[in-house]
Amino acid sequence: MVSDALCRCICGTNRLGEQLEKGDWTPRAPGAAPPADVVEEADEPPDMFPQVAGRLCYSMLADQQLRGVPIREGELWHLSTEEKVDPIHLVLHVNGFCFEADGQELSISLSPFTLVRNCKFQSTYPSLNISDFKIFKVSLFAQGACYYFGVKADDERQAEEERSRWVLDISRAMRLVTQSLFPPFRISCDPVHSVDVTQRRLMA
User: Fold this and answer.
1) Rounded CA separation 187/28 (Å)
2) Could you give the 3-state DSSP secondary structure of residue 116?
3) pTM surpassing 0.70?
């Protein structure tokens, strides 16, 4: 299952996993370099990872258990297909997010087949002007579902920045989920002495 693969990523021996499980993740400004200790600890030798025996299977269901403590939470607006706009409290985890709508808590786990991006609505809702919101969507292609969220602020620039931070943080969580599904590996650029052609190969 996906949760098993995620467990190897965030519950293993590497420092990155420990930080994610504890929620020790401070979102960076766009273009900022990642902390040096995270980059170094993520490049551990393969033998530092727990060994998995047998064939691995993965599930794309969106109801996987959310892991760790929340890495971010905040107030947003949920735009539903019934042309309703409701204030919600969105909680982002390392492998998904959750929020409450119509008295029911929705928990959505992320997969590599998920897309998050800014968007605009072409029409306005009857009771509300959608142009007041900075909207982004989370598309779950495997489930054929799409969730729309809006950011509203008195200052338009502030709303744009807040939306960008949400999109970047959700994108990073998706990237971590994707990386957790790859088996441990190492790439070597050293030539093979018995094969002359490898003396001229390049690594891009």
Assistant:
1) 28
2) strand
3) no
Listed in sequence order, the DSSP H helices in the chain are: 2-10, 15-22, 36-42, 156-180
Instruction: Look up residue 178 and give its amino acid.
Output: T
pLDDT in tens, 119-133: 887 665 666 677 788
Mind spelling out the 3-state secondary structure of 151-191? ECCCCHHHHHHHHHHHHHHHHHHHHHHHHHCCCCCCCCCCC
Instruction: State the Cα–Cα distance between residues 171 and 109, nearest whole angstrom.
Output: 13
SS3 state at 126: coil
CA distance 125 to 203: 52
CB 174 within 8 A of CB 154: no
